[in-house]
Amino acid sequence: MLLSSLRASFVEAFGTSPTAFSVAPGRVNLIGEHIDYLGGCVLPAAIDRQIRIACRPNGTDDVRIQSDHSGASPVSFPVTDDRVREGDESWINYPLGVLGEYRKDGVTCPGFDALISSNLPAGAGLSSSAALEAATALIVEWLSGEARSAAQRAALCRLAEHHYAGVPCGIMDQLVVCAAEEGHALRIDCETLETRPVGLPRGIVLVIANTGVQHALGDGEYRIRREQCAEAEQILGVASLCQASLEEIGKQESQLGELLTRRARHAVTELERVEDFILAMAANDSATTRRIMHEGHVSLRDDFEVSCPELDCLVEAAEEFGHGLWGARMTGGGFGGSTVNLIEAKQVAAFTAFLSEHFYVTFERKPDIFTAHPSPGAQIFPASAGDA
């Protein structure tokens, strides 16, 4: 939805014009999956699918918030409300949690009206939750006059997801959504929160294929993986699996057992893949980037067990197509969601058609496939600035 349309919808919903627009992107992760909460280095990129929020202070102590997808009246709650929502209103926990964490950080926000619009599919592994959190955080800072750095904002949004949405996520999603740079992926050291933009090879396009299998990371499997990693760390005597080595894992295999050995092996090998992938991109070595992304997917499928048949089907199809492929794998927390593919621009049309047909033959439906551009992080600006 263009901002002019969002403005008109806001007027229809609240009877007055917005004063600001907050825009936050989704993200894909090129390599470095399930190691952000272990303090590892990762390589995500923000994309040009976004959550956009029109807002205006309303002169009360209440927040009135509405999604243009809900078709319902605005949800209203006191700006100091701490009650976690369930069922159809569970999506409110993301903005509610941001308000709560900023309040704990000493930021007082006045009541406001907000209308949310999105072309970022929820449950697709593209961090729609982090985008909603970041967009809300910028509104809180705008209305309160209390600005935070991108890293501080990401940390508060992460706490909101922990405490209100019940997902013990790492910092990757929130930090790339807040700090991404146009045209670049972002190398993030999840221990120090240091970031560095990394350019993609010329002529390479991001193609995202959404399986339509919605993941729900709060349902338990994500938390179980974190707990298994913590158990493996205790046995290995390390503060993080990213500090372990394959040699150490091999020596402790009998104590770890088969399951924890596989979980630990994924963490150690995935960390190595991140740096190797960055070097291969810098060298324009498509054979190596393709191999690394495939190995990452296999590790997520077999050692970490977070893939699903639909994701595997899309990755297998990408590998079968081959022409101009720089890599394909699942992206995000898994258990559904999307694959990310790096493909030469001249092959995009044929590649997309091949993936769609291959998926249809197996599942009798077509995936949602679209191209994406590495985009800047979340931003807020006056409504008078017009469409963006």
Describe, in short, the structure shown:
By secondary structure, this protein is of the alpha+beta class.
Give a structural overview.
By secondary structure, the protein is of the alpha+beta class. The protein folds into 2 domains: 3-198 and 376-385, Ribosomal Protein S5, domain 2, CATH 3.30.230.10; 199-372, GHMP kinase, C-terminal domain (Alpha-Beta Plaits, 2-Layer Sandwich), CATH 3.30.70. Helix content is 42%, strand content 22%. It contains 11 helices and 12 strands. It has helices at 3-14, 93-104, 128-144, 150-165, 172-179, 221-236, 246-251, 253-282, 286-302, 309-321, 348-363, and strands at 20-31, 41-57, 62-67, 75-78, 112-118, 184-189, 195-199, 204-210, 325-331, 338-344, 368-372, 379-382. α2 packs across α3 (128-144) and α6 (221-236) crosses α8 (253-282). The longest helix has 30 residues, at 253-282. It is globular.
Q: How many strands, what sense, and barrel or not for the largest sheet?
A: 8 strands, mixed
Distance between the termini: 11 Å
**Radius of gyration computed on alpha carbons:** 21 Å
- Structural class call reads alpha+beta
CATH fold field value of the largest domain:
Ribosomal Protein S5, domain 2
Number of alpha- plus pi-helical segments: 11
Kindly state the mean pLDDT as a whole number? 94
- Gross morphology is globular
Structurally, the number of domains stands at 2
Please count the beta strands (DSSP E, at least 2 residues each). Answer: 12
Give the low-confidence spans: none
How much of the sequence lies in strands comes to 15-25%
Q: How helix-rich are the residues, as a percent range?
A: 40-55%
The CATH architecture name of the largest domain reads 2-Layer Sandwich
- CATH class descriptor name of the largest domain: Alpha Beta
Order of helices and strands: HEEEEHEHHHEEEHHHHHEEHEE
